[in-house]
Amino acid sequence: MSMQAITGRHQRGLLPFEIVQILDAEVNSEKFVKTTSDSYRAAVREFVLEKAVKKMGDVRQFHGMFEALEKDDEWGDEMDFTMGASQADVAAVDNKAKVTEEQLRTFLEICWIRYVKSRIEPGENPKVLVASYKGD
Q: 14 phi and psi, to 5 degrees?
């Protein structure tokens, strides 16, 4: 399932380092840690890094923009991550690799729900189990 197919794309696209920050916060959250295995969290993290972060960095670099794979503490709010790229290049990057915060969080929630549902004991109500964790 594509992250782009999950939700609308009307929000601001995240930069690669922002995806990593949100990804790490979510997969290390109490909800994920209590209910999923270390190997599953590592697999989800690796998938997002490979399919979204690396791809976005490569596309940005191809279009003459800063990859922004890691955040430098010296960057201010005025940092131009496009490095003066044309509007056409910015649009091309958005078209090829844009991921919004809503898309990322929805994708991670789907990963979590699928994992939890796959671990349900026979006869156990999956809706009750998922609902009990959603409150965390």
A: -75, 150
If one compares 18 and 121, the residue with the highest pLDDT of the two is 18
Q: How many domains does the chain have?
A: 1
Residue 35 one-letter amino acid: T
Q: What domain range is 109 assigned to?
A: 3-134
Q: How far apart are CA 15 and CA 88, in angstroms?
A: 18
Read off the pLDDT of residues 57-95 as tens digits, 9 standing for 90 and up: 999 899 988 888 887 777 666 666 776 778 888 888 888
Other beta carbons within 10 angstroms of residue 32's beta carbon come to 20
* Other beta carbons within 10 Å of 103: 23
